[in-house]
Specification:
alpha/beta, Metallo-beta-lactamase, Chain A, Serine Threonine Protein Phosphatase 5, Tetratricopeptide repeat, 2 domains, 18 helices, globular
Length: about 450
Amino acid sequence: MHPIQLSTKVIDSGIVDEPLNRVTNEITELATDLAIVESFSHSIVWDTGDGLMCFDASGAGSGEAVVQSIRTWRTSPISTLVYTHGHADHVGGSFAFANDAISKGAPAPHVIGHENVNKRIDRYTTTNEWNVRINQRQFGGIKSDMRPNSGNLSAALSLGENAHQFLPLATLRPDESFSDQLIIQAGNTSVEFHHARGETDDHLWGWIPEKKWLFTGDFVIWNYPNAGNPQKVQRYALEWATALRRMIAQGPELLLPAHGLPIEGKKRIATVLDDIATSLETLVSQVIDMMNAGETLDTIIHTVKVPQHILDKPYMRPFYDEPEFVVRNIWRLYGGWWDGAASRLKPSPDAVVAQELAHLAGGAHVLIQRALELSETDLRLACHLADLAGWAAPDDASVHADRATIYDKRRRSEMSLMSKGIYKAAARESEAIVKNAGT
């Protein structure tokens, strides 16, 4: 089904019965001279009449396929590449755009991005191994548990050059950047780029007033907003909401996201943006109210919730990030890293605490047995005891076999990709200990 027809049907009915983020690398024309290549991270392509302008380059594993699809639609030079932000799945495929230019004897694309994109790329270079590791963990539970809208996801998420390089060394850097706002002419058309912090500190959204086209990048992802990722740097929930309100004020008639489906219709777009903004604003206000009242992070994360009828909306489902993680990021932004429990300000090592508790309980096997019992009724508590048992007996294959069982069960019970990945990684840690004990 045409992506706009599908998004209209899903938003108007509230029913999701087919994939919404289609990782096909196929191109579809959305309007005159405008097309989308649907990938894990899309590339939106506009024929300006003076070359092609592409919003995002997709990732290292999908960049070449994206360019090949563009070439089935237009043969004009790709003159401009716009980075909505510097995440690897949006810029990592840029080497393929450069190679396309070389093959045609044309100049490399002119790259536009916020001034913080280059700082991000520098940080990725400095923390390359860390980012490889956390992305492997984040997406580690994906094969067996992601809904069918993942498509050929493992290929799209490939690291490209090799498994040890988070961002390809040939990634193009912006050669034009800005701080707050940039307005350019593309052919005879004015294009606006606006900076706003949200998922990242280097994000922009694009706006073409003449056509009423809105390019949102990851401000809209057809999942609950990725404002809480537990393994990544700070997110900005309230500023995200403010940016969405600014977008609504423009009166867009076609919304073009980097993940999920394009959306058509002024009223429909305003509803989606307002729902996302309102949910984020509500979380922020609730968390800050409780912080001002002196509550601890533990109390806040177990109190502040998003109503289920909001999470049931097709574009708000917590299949990637989830509200509990957003709450933690709000606390981190306004309150720092300490959670309010005095013992955790300068704690003993986990293994020392675990060994003492195991001693009091009668051994690590007592802890893991109780964890197995609790896994039938309270997986949160079961995982605490499973970790304590594992830390108290780091080389005990029996303990770790049971710990792996508990975390596999926890993974299967979760909705969000981030939770699934982390819990699967925990299971694999224990599985590796069991395997090594048998060799």
